[in-house]
TrEMBL record:
Molecular-function GO term, any one: 4-amino-4-deoxy-L-arabinose transferase activity
Known EC number: 2.4.2.43
Membrane topology: Multi-pass membrane protein
InterPro entries xrefs: LipidA_mod_glycosyltrf_83, RgtA/B/C-like
KW NAD (keyword) present: no
Any Pfam family: PMT_2
Keyword Cell membrane annotated: yes
Subcellular location: Cell membrane
Protein name: Undecaprenyl phosphate-alpha-4-amino-4-deoxy-L-arabinose arabinosyl transferase
Organism domain of life: Bacteria
TM segment ranges: 7-25, 64-82, 113-131, 138-155, 175-206, 246-265, 295-318, 330-351, 357-375, 387-407, 419-437, 449-467
GO biological process: lipopolysaccharide biosynthetic process; response to iron(III) ion
Ranges where the Glycosyltransferase RgtA/B/C/D-like domain occurs: 61-208
Lineage: Bacteria, Pseudomonadati, Planctomycetota, Planctomycetia, Planctomycetales
């Protein structure tokens, strides 16, 4: 087995463990997972491949690609948590392989291997690759477009890979790159085109600067001119033209536009307005659903979301900047990786609505820079002060200690009986200690290998073991049993007082009509729908207080169960079937 096959096998093994272990174990997590999975289920049931529908209503939040992938998975495996998440897991594995390929191309085989292992075992990328959301398709196709660009513009010599051209000159490469962006647009909208082209464009704007622009400035005015030099109008327009914008738009339109037009006409423009105006422009201009943050939101998000590999973030940044200034064989690779991360962080920092998942597509770039740093450190290309390794591996030990102490305390408050989850802290604590001891002995490869083993063990421990233990406290199966204790989903019509949670809708396996007025909810509960089904009402105990004055206690029975982390209970209200003798007595009285 040659090195490439061996390394690819390692990435497949690590990513497979990280993303597939107990994939269908926990129930779908509110609120995004059940919305996406439920939308795909309703579309499949109606043989509808055009109009996104959830809870029998138009879903304007996301384009259709994620639903298509889930529908295919449902058709093969049935409508389950596993089949809803499987497309994300497979695409996460694919993105890990693409990260390995790009890292290998830019920095060499060992750096690529480190990059692939790193991205497969980071916290936030693991979430994206195990969740029934559009993030994994967006990341995969965005990364695929960038991978095609890298392969199409670099040439491998005996000792290194160099950029030999600014833009691919092969039409299959150009079309493949922009077709991948078209698929990303089908996955999550315009950002599937805007962000990858911005990454490539930013790299070219800096790379194509005239000779002498890279000299270190000595005055503040010179520093300012250097900062804005990439955006000089003529230089900017020439670079944009180099990227063949007409071909780009034509190719993306050929892939994505047919569905966008189809859904526009099928919904009389309602989906188009909702998606582009409310969910794109609206999120950029206003903070929606309380998702806000300051300029430090995404830098902090990267440190947390890229854990445990984020322990190297500062030394990776400093080493990369030093390498770029020296203009050595790794300068272009670091520049591209930094443009990849910087473009996503900068652009999404400008938006008013902020979520950690928004910048996950830049994680491959961060992993590639981290892999390059680790490879060079392992090979002794530079010496680090012991303070850096102590800070890095000490922070892993700190996290492990915090988990050992904090989780039992949090468990007693939030998930009683799960103090055992605190034992997971031994993984980073012991792993960080082994890495620290090895680094103190100048055994750097052993230290970084210990970090990799720690990351590989943490991923299934968190996502497969801990997530399922916590999921038990949501008591989803108990909720479903209570809903249908007197029948089946076909014989019971579930309604709600105020808005139902998306997981209620998914696990009820039917749309849930909501009523906002107590009188309407009462009348609906004691009536029957056009199919003659009896009705069961779902709400929360705090909302139930508004409904109780309109109900007779003798006519209803109520089941309650904790509403996980919401500070209230789920209440399931059903009419009580009256005894025959009582019904006859009431009938006689009425006469």
């Amino acid at each position: 087995m040659n090195q490439s096959m061996r390394d690819a096998g390692i990435i497949l093994f690590v990513a497979g463990i990280a993303f597939l272990t107990n994939l269908g174990g926990p129930h779908l997590w509110d609120r995004d997972e059940p919305r996406n999975a439920g939308c795909a289920a309703e579309m499949l049931a109606a043989n509808n491949w055009v109009k996104p529908i959830f809870n029998a209503e138009l879903r304007e939040h996301k384009p259709v690609l994620t639903y298509w992938l889930m529908m295919i998975s449902y058709a093969i495996f049935g409508v389950t948590e596993f089949s809803a998440r499987l497309p994300s897991a497979l695409l996460g594995i694919g993105s890990s392989l693409l990260t390995w390929l790009i890292g290998r191309r830019l920095f060499g085989a060992r750096a690529g291997l480190w990059a692939g292992v790193a991205i497969a075992t980071t916290l936030m990328f693991g979430v994206a690759s195990r969740a029934a959301t559009p993030d994994a398709p967006l990341i995969f196709f965005s990364t695929l477009a960038i991978a095609i660009y890298i392969v199409g513009t670099t040439s491998k010599t005996d000792s290194e890979t160099v950029f030999v051209k600014d833009f691919p000159d092969s039409w299959p490469a150009i079309l493949g790159m922009y077709a991948s962006m078209g698929m990303a647009v089908l996955a999550k909208g315009p950002i599937g085109l805007v962000l990858p082209t911005a990454v490539i464009g930013m790299f070219l704007l800096i790379r194509r600067l005239p000779e002498g622009q890279s000299d270190s400035p000595t005055t503040w005015s010179a520093r300012f001119r250097k900062l804005v030099a990439p955006f000089a109008p003529v230089h900017f327009l020439k670079t944009c033209w180099t990227m063949k914008p007409i071909t780009c738009l034509a190719c993306v339109a050929a892939i994505a536009l047919p569905w966008y037009l189809w859904v526009h006409f099928r919904t009389d423009g309602e989906w188009t307005y909702g998606f582009f105006v409310k969910h794109n422009v609206g999120r950029a201009m206003n903070s929606m659903d309380g998702h806000r943050g300051n300029v430090l939101f995404y830098p902090v998000t990267l440190i947390v979301g890229f854990f445990p590999w984020s322990i190297f973030w500062l030394i990776t940044l400093l080493d990369g900047l030093k390498t770029i200034r020296q203009i050595n064989r790794y300068a272009s690779g670091y520049l591209f990786a930094f443009c990849w991360v910087g473009v996503y962080v900068a652009l999404f920092s400008l938006a008013k609505t902020k979520l950690p998942s928004y910048i996950t597509p830049c994680y491959p770039g961060l992993a590639i820079a981290t892999g390059a740093f680790i490879d060079r450190w392992n090979r002794g290309s530079f010496q680090l002060s012991p303070i850096w390794s102590r800070l890095a591996f000490g922070s892993v030990m700190f996290v492990g200690t915090a988990v050992l102490i904090g989780i039992p305390i949090a468990s007693s408050l939030l998930v009683p009986g799960e103090m055992v989850l605190g034992l997971l802290g031994f993984i980073p604590l012991i792993g960080g200690l082994i890495a620290l001891i090895a680094s103190e002995r100048q055994q750097i490869p052993r230290a970084t290998f210990a970090t990799a083993v720690t990351a590989i063990l943490m991923s299934p421990a968190v996502f497969a073991f801990a997530a399922e233990r916590i999921d038990r406290h949501r008591r989803v199966d108990e909720m479903v049993d209570s809903l249908y204790q007197n029948g089946s989903p076909e014989s019971v019509d579930v309604i709600s007082f105020h808005s139902p949670e998306s997981s209620w809708i998914f696990y009820a396996k039917q749309p849930i009509e909501r009523f906002r007025e107590p009188e309407e909810a009462r009348d609906a509960l004691f009536g029957k729908n056009s199919q003659g089904q009896t009705r069961v009402l779902m709400t929360t105990t705090d909302k139930l207080t508004q409904l109780r004055p309109y109900l007779r206690e003798s006519e209803i029975e109520i089941d309650t169960m904790p509403f996980f982390l919401e500070g209230t209970d789920i209440a399931i209200v059903r009419p009580v079937a009256k005894p025959v003798q009582q019904a006859k007595a009431e009938s006689t009285t009425i006469r």
